[in-house]
Amino acid sequence: MRFGELKVTAAVLAIQGLLALYTAQSYPRVYLPFAALDFLLAYLVYTKSNTAVKVALIYLGIDLFLAIFYLIAGVLLKGVVAFLDFLAIHDMVSYIELTFGEEEASEGNG
Question: Transmembrane helix: is it a keyword of this entry (predicted)?
């Protein structure tokens, strides 16, 4: 997988959806809507929906922010979540950079 193709982001969202399903088995069912959101965003990002990329970027940014706070508090497992969020955000920013560069190049030539 290369960055900028949104496959990394789709994989990270699918992994987080599976983690939310696993968490919903032993904790309150409040995690189920987040699992559904993760799977829906994973599918829409994989199909390269621009709106889904923007929503996923905001969602993963907030998740990264909260994971860093949990990591500071001593929950070491959130370090893995923070790393996955960072990879997904890097992938989405690379995708945006590639698409914006293509649009800018086509405007300059035309």
Answer: yes
Separation of alpha carbons 94 and 58, rounded Å:
15
User: Please, which pLDDT band fits residue 110 given cuts at 50, 70 and 90?
Assistant: low
User: Residue 103: what pLDDT?
Assistant: 72
- The alpha carbon of residue 110 and the mean position of all alpha carbons in its chain are separated, in whole angstroms, by 34
Euclidean distance between CA atoms 105 and 8, whole angstroms: 26
Nearest of 35, 15, 10 to residue 91 by alpha carbon: 10
Q: How many residues does the chain have?
A: 110
Sorted by where each begins, the domain ranges of the chain are 7-102
* Residue with token string 């979540």: 81
Q: How many CB atoms lie within 10 A of CB 30?
A: 10
**Token pair belonging to 40:** 């829906």
- Residue 7: partners with Cβ closer than 8 Å, 6 or more residues away: 1, 46, 91
